Amino acid sequence: YRAKEGKDTYQFFSSDMDEHLFKRTILEGELRKALRQDQLQLFYQPKVDLRTGRITGVEALLRWFHPEFGMVPVGDFIPIAEETGLITQIGDWVLKTACAQNKKWQQQGFPPMRVAVNLSAKQFQQVDLVKTIVDVLERTKLDPQYLELEITETVAMNKADSVVDKLNNLKALGIQLAIDDFGTGYSSLSYLKKFPIDTLKIDRSFIRDISKDTDNEAIITTIITMAHHLKLNVIAEGVEENEHLCFLKQHDCDQIQGFLFSKPLSVADFEKAFQGLQEVAVGYQKDTES
Ligand code: C2E
Ligand code: MG
Ligand code: MG
Ligand code: MG
């Protein structure tokens, strides 16, 4: 990172400087510009259905390429966007861009895929969230079944009553709903009955330790079993190793996402890689005969 100092000299921030101050003051201003100057981009990480061996969806992941700082990690600027309220504009841009891109892929002849968009707490609390989403779907002409929203347990647990209403309204539109980072919140499980959820995404922290930590393996298999009893889909995120994939296949996980299959890719890279990735995905297919 570099920050402006004096008139036109730049100085690199060293690690012992006040990082938070830097982030608040510099990044906030820069983030406003980023929206206007087209510095934001969405990358897309494919998800594979282990039963069909097909790419069934992609998760849209935000990237900020700053002309001087380079790529700013999403974990550094989303919290600031939330604090400053900029998340509303950024979130609207993400939704619109992801839906428009997915529609475009369908028109280009790619097999229909679902695009997943992450919603942060502030975005979810917006009173006009449902209206915003309806507008985006109408403008982009994307069929709602091809949009999925990922929310975390903590988001879901906020102000439980209005949350249920909002989720029901979204569900009624035909949108898919997923709980992201499942297993890392502090919430009770009772919301799983109240909320019209379609999918649980098992947090990466559990997947990472497959074959090293039997406790985590027990947690994973329990989540999968519970999800299936509740008639929910279950996807594992952060699948990096072949061992992870084998374990998840063996324990009947529905879908996987992670670096083993593909990193998040730019639109151009995703389009170039698609055929090859689809062939790899076929190899992941579960042997349902035996
Ligand atoms: P998330 O929604 O849980 O997204 C998954 C994160 O894990 C992504 O990080 C992805 O690049 C990373 N990942 C995927 N596969 C692997 C793997 O095999 N190994 C490892 N080590 N990492 C993997 P990313 O893109 O840095 O995003 C981090 C978080 O930032 C996301 O977590 C999400 O909570 C948030 N985020 C990203 N894009 C958006 C957005 O458009 N809006 C909002 N509100 N939040 C976003
Ligand atoms: Mg996510
Ligand atoms: Mg996640
Ligand atoms: Mg995560």
TrEMBL record:
It is found in: Cell membrane. Residues 24-278 form the EAL domain. This is Diguanylate cyclase (GGDEF)-like protein. It comes from Ammoniphilus resinae.
